[in-house]
Amino acid sequence: MHQSKLDFFCKLGYGKQDICKVLDSLGQEALEDDVLKELIRMGSKPQALESQAQPAPLKLVARGSCSATPGLQWLGEDESDASDSLRPIVIDGSNVAMSHGNKEVFSCWGIQLAVDWFRERGHTYIKVFVPLWRKEPPRQETPIADQHILEELEKQSILVYTPSRKVKGKRVVCYDDRYIVKVAYEKDGVIVSNDHYRDLQNENPEWKWFIEQRLLMYSFVSNRFMPPDDPLGRHGPSLSNFLSKKPVLPEKKWQPCPYGKKCTYGNKCKFYHPERLYQAQLSVADELRAKTKVSSAPGKEERRCQCSP
């Protein structure tokens, strides 16, 4: 029991020393939710697992060149040039699988499609949460398709099972939505789900803002995972900016004026006029006033000369 809890929280990214301290203080029979609350209260934050990281092969460097990075690097979850600008991804596995299976079958292939989509974009921190009882053989009331995908994702340290057990023949399941929101909130990442988590929004005001701003919805179109191009609506950020830590502002493109040279708005026109690029954009009325001033100025000078002695 102690080893299973230790492995579970290690997969979440917590240090073994912090986990052992909490288990010693709360006891070996403590529930996972209580252990997680105590870890958060202690200020422990998930970190990359050094024990699971594998050393990368040595890179050849040309003579005379200086490299800031050492020849032998350890590839952790957060160490990547591409991942520095991309947000961590936390996927609601049950929601994605049931959506791909048309709410009738728990389709593990849908989870694989979502993971592959974020991998192709360059995201390195990807976590999928699925209840532990999905490991059991499928039943008639709970059909599962492509169950072997769950084992493969677990070996890659992408899939995390939320705990569940049986007490007197009844299954006791921990609330996996709370794990999803907590991990995404701590990692400052993005939640991939079509669920709105309204109960958790009412539970914590900080989670309410986070869920409203960081929830990425999606659709499956012919076995193709498709999130929207405007996750927060027409006036919100684009999908690339939504998934990036440092959003890039688009260049302002001027729209040409539909009236062209016939436009009478002058400098008040909000559209682009290529013919007025090096000219003062005055309105027609202002141009007429300027012309009348120029034409009337010589007449006034002549009158002044005639009246003077």
TrEMBL record:
Protein keywords:
Endonuclease, Hydrolase, Magnesium, Metal-binding, Nuclease, Zinc, Zinc-finger
In which domain of life is the source organism classified? Answer: Eukaryota
Can the keyword Hydrolase be found in this entry's annotation?
Answer: yes
Residue stretches making up the C3H1-type domain: 251-276
Protein name as catalogued: ZC12D ribonuclease
Q: Which cofactor does it need?
A: Mg(2+)
GO molecular function per UniProt: hydrolase activity; mRNA binding; RNA endonuclease activity; zinc ion binding
Q: Give Gene Ontology CC terms.
A: cytoplasmic ribonucleoprotein granule; nucleus
Q: Where are the zinc fingers (C3H1-type)?
A: 251-276
Q: Which Pfam families match?
A: RNase_Zc3h12a, UBA_6
Q: Which family does it belong to?
A: Belongs to the ZC3H12 family.
